[in-house]
Amino acid sequence: MSSELIGELGQVGLKIGDSTSAVTAAPDCYSGDEKKKPRLSSRPKKFRQAWMMFDIFKDWLRPHTSPEFATCIVCNRVIKAGKSELEKHAAGKRHQMLRGNVPSTTTVLIGQELISQSELPVSISINAEGGGAPTPVTVDEYTSVQCIDAGTYTNISSEGNPVSSTETYHQPVQRHHPIVAPQPQVELTTKAIVSRQAPPWKATAIVNGHVTRLDLADYRGRYLIFNRVCASEINALSDRVAEFRMAQTEIVACSVDSHLSHLAWGKLSRQDGGVGNPKIPLLADPTHSIAKDYGVLLPDKGHSLRATYIIDKRGILRAMNMYDTVIGRGIDELLRTIKALLYSDETEEAVPADWSPSHQGQCMANVKHDQSALS
């Protein structure tokens, strides 16, 4: 082949190459240094059970209720279920610190108090290192204990089973023994003192079935029996009120009930548990002020003791007796005491034991005999 022919073929090939390169040239969008960007996946990452077999995850990684998340039982946190997110969390400082060692100088939090190990009598153990030798810690009668070390919390079971921070994490449940504050002791005070002025009172009363106001000062000039009574005593005093009035004595019964209760009580027959229109006034003390002044109120029970007070014509308290609520009083003894006080006021003579109105002549002789025996 001649050199001229080769030259022509070279020119033809060059032209063909130029046209081919023009046809097969890459479009403008792919030219230059720009590269095609990868398309991001729209599917969410899901937790895989196989991850818990990895050495980096097996001690702390647990599945979450949602497949798109995972749980760290050391940090007690919820993490997105992506391997890169989990690796990043495993390398975090807080995660590493919580997986670290528990120092030997462990402080135990029981209830709300910090207690050192030496103060606790019963010994159990915790896994101080993630799989190492247990460190003794003592607890006594506590369901759970927190070991505190610069923000490190480890739960300890009172059954003696060690629970390390690398195995599981339990929110500590502290059971506090109920502390009952001591009730303040109520001091029972009284203004009722024998031989002194009786504590005054004004209150609503039921008299002969009608509501009225009574005042202690209204009874000046006559003896008064001021009685904290029950139903049986009201009936007994009502039946014998004439005998007391012959002895210049009036009777007033008092209770901590309201006047409306007394009104309904008076209309109820004795057979039905009432007092059947008593002949003596029923004084109401719903605020307990009279009971407090006379020293018979029991604040813890809300009612008063049974008591009898004898007030003379000048308003002086001359006699008083007090009983438990289960004991009734004798009407005869009360009437004898009234007559003895009247006799002593009239004659200015002392009255001996077992005195009765029929022994008035023997009174002075007995007193002189007692005085000579004392001398």
TrEMBL record:
Q: Which domain of life is it from?
A: Eukaryota
UniProt keyword annotation of Nucleotide-binding present:
no
Cross-referenced InterPro entries = AhpC/TSA, Peroxiredoxin, Thioredoxin-like_sf, Thioredoxin_domain
Q: List the lineage, top down.
A: Eukaryota, Metazoa, Ecdysozoa, Arthropoda, Hexapoda
What's the protein name?
thioredoxin-dependent peroxiredoxin
Query: What positions does the domain Thioredoxin occupy?
Result: 192-343
Q: Which organism is it from?
A: Nezara viridula (Southern green stink bug)
Q: Name one GO molecular function term.
A: thioredoxin peroxidase activity
One Gene Ontology cellular component term attached to this UniProt record is:
endoplasmic reticulum
Q: Does the keyword ATP-binding apply?
A: no
Family label: Belongs to the peroxiredoxin family. AhpC/Prx1 subfamily.
A Pfam family matched by this chain, by name?
AhpC-TSA
Q: CDD domains given for it?
A: PRX_Typ2cys (cd03015)
